[in-house]
Amino acid sequence: MDKIVCGVYARDSTDKQGDTVENQISQSKEFINRLGPEFVVDENCIFVDNAVSGYYTSVFDREAMKLAIELAKEKKFQVLVFKEVARVGRDKQENPAIVGMFEQYGIRVIAINDNYDSLNKDNITFGILSVLAEQESRKTSVRVSTGKKEKARRGQWNTTAPIGYVLNKVTKTLDIDPETRGIIEDVFDLYVNSDVGTFLIAQQLNNRGKRTNNGNLFSRETVKKILVNPVYIGHTVYGKKRNELERKYDDSGKMTKKKITIKIDKGDWLTIENTHEPIINKETFYSVQEKISDRGHHRTPRRAYHPLTGILYCKKCGEGMVCQKRSTKDKEYRYYICKTYHKYGRDACSQANVNADKLEPSIVQIVQNRLLRLSSTEIESSSNRSDDIKRLEEEISRRSKEKDRIKKDQVDIFQQRELFSEEAYKEQMLDLKSRSVAINEEISILENKLSAVKESENRSANIVQLTEKFLNLDISNIGMVRTLLHELIETITISEEDVDIKYRYDII
Ligand SMILES: [Zn+2]
Q: Nearest to residue 190, comparing CAs of 203, 209, 176, 177?
């Protein structure tokens, strides 16, 4: 078993309520013992600050703290236990700094009386402190982004201009770049009017000596990015990314904030229309979007494989069956052959070869009959789940509001903690905490339910679509036959006598 090395930090206290250093250490050690046999205390990592006079010096200037930080950096221990971190720092601001300092070096911090453990961030005292810290940082980030939003509303561009445009240095808006607008027009034109994909478009541009704004060759990805960017119909999309502050502590406990960039979900982007002159008309742009999503969804294989390869199995030996072509002078035959037989011969499996041109239409027939028998009410009842979805969404939002209220209560009590006795304060906080834990649990159960209902609705909607396509299937379109059969069927098992079809959807 790998040992987990633990350290203890204790501080001699000036007030009478405080525990002796010896007590702090022995209680911490006892706590570590209870964590499990793999947790061991290293006597070199017992840090004791005796600096009674040090109330006016920062905790980070104390010798034992300096040593602890040094050894944390050198990974001499993995867990640091405080009996009560709140008594270590000079003031409330220092306590989260102490914790943050060690955590940034990958140390798990446990503060027994504060009910704090880095592994479980859902805690009382520090939870509140970090709530306050988060609120502050969110405020700054909101302030920054409203400023940017304002700029975006005025059509002002925040970053470098995309290819096809140049940044007007005076108005900070986009002007069409006569040098590169042709590239954009060509990309859209080729994609809409000829059956050329993004790869070939990139190749054509490169062959004509065109390069991206950074001087690079065009790739499939850069072309795709152009095709989906609404900037080319005159819109500015704001909020694809958001900046947030990340806190870091230096050796003196001083906190610095670093900007980090977070990607935002597409649904939360903000589009401001008609902020500059478009290069592409909307009709073209939207038909491109349709074409792109079509290609993405039912990607028909480049080669029309044999429709049943991959889902057809031999009932005698359980192996898959593959298709082979045989030609005579005037005709070409296709056969499905058991892989075992194909590899090892007739002795290994006696499954007879099956004529593909007879088997495929009969499978299609069987599936069509099955789909026709499937009553339309059966599908509809399982597809119309919008009431359930609405109800679940309402319940989730009600609980989220309650959760916000509890958070607010916690902050209120924390801010007025001087008004309570320590006992009453802890009791109230514990009560709020357990309520918040319960609500979190309820929310996650509801969210699971919601996604299950949505999933089932999707599947039903899918079946309706598939059924429609299947009943109008042109059997000579081998690619389409293959796609639809693979969408609907998990496995087909055959022998000379019978065919078993296992569908991928329960309700079929
Ligand atoms: Zn076989």
A: 203
